[in-house]
Amino acid sequence: MPLNTPLEALTSALVLAITAPDDDRAARAIALADEIAAMCPPGHIALAKRAALEELRRMDGESAHG
After folding, report:
1. In order along the chain (66 residues), what is the average pLDDT of each group of 10 residues?
2. I want to staple 8 with a disulfide (CB 3.0 to 4.6 A). Which of 3, 15, 31, 59 is the partner?
3. pTM (whole model) above 0.90
């Protein structure tokens, strides 16, 4: 899936940071999220956090159902 906006990129980086399979990959995703967040206005950061939580809930629902 191509990322078209910094908001989409930040959302994806946050999801990656939370779902990373190990500490090293989590740290790399966190660093990436920090870099992207530095280029975003504060309002976009809050939107990305909410979008990431929604994505994680969706992923959790999918894993519970199949």
Report:
1. 85 97 97 96 94 96 76
2. 3
3. no
